[in-house]
Amino acid sequence: MARELVYLGLGSNLGDRAAHLAAALAGLAAAGVTVRRRSPLYETAPVGVTDQPWFLNAVAEVETALEPAELLGVAKAVERAVGRTPGPRWGPRVVDVDLLLYGERQVNLPDPWLVIPHPALWQRLFVLVPLRDLRPDLRAPDGTPIGAWIARLAAAQPAAVRPFTTAT
Q1: Fewer Cβ atoms within 10 A, N terminus or C terminus of the chain?
Q2: CA–CA separation, 106 vs 127, rounded Å?
Q3: Which residues pair with 44 in a beta bridge?
């Protein structure tokens, strides 16, 4: 079975955020997903529900032979294993694992609901900034380089993403 290069978005805004992200990566690896590398960590302003703690976000480059729906199942199982419980949309969470890109594939599945590339990818600085660390060559659907796209979004969302340091 062919292995695909996949990019996953990781986020946490409850408890020991860095430990939760590390546990999610370990859980993916234990499930047979090869974690090749991870972006630096970024603190990011909450989106949607803004009255909650800032998130810690990263993007992981992984390799897998799992089909997209199977990988989604693994990601959701990892979230539960790390401690995520059902909650409000865009609300606080122990961990979140999103499938952003799956090779060059486009996926649109109704059950389980799965769209790849992630439908909000190009509107989310908290995903694009760490994704640029791993894929500086990536271009938006209109051909705009990821760095220029980020600059455009950042002008409208100042201070939404900052490098994480343990002192913050």
Answers
A1: N
A2: 18
A3: 55, 161
pLDDT digits (tens, 9 = 90+) for 66-112: 999 999 999 999 999 999 998 888 889 999 999 999 999 999 999 88
What is the rounded CA–CA span in Å between residue 46 and residue 80?
21
The total number of structural domains in the chain stands at 1
- 138 domain residue, yes or no: yes
Q: Using an 8 Å Cβ cutoff, are 71 and 35 in contact?
A: no
Domain of 131, in residue numbers: 4-163
For CA atoms 2, 31, 106, 6, give the dihedral sign.
negative
Residue 168 lies in a domain: no
Residue 126: CB partners within 8 Å, gap ≥ 6?
Answer: 9, 11, 42, 44, 45, 47, 55, 57, 160, 161
Query: Which amino acids are annotated catalytic?
Result: 84, 93, 96, 98
DSSP bridge pairs for 60: 8, 38
Structure tokens at 115: 């769209």
What are residue 55's phi and psi, to 5 degrees?
-90, 160
CATH of the domain at 58: 3.30.70.560
Residue 16 tokens read as: 């020991």
Tokens of 138: 């990536």
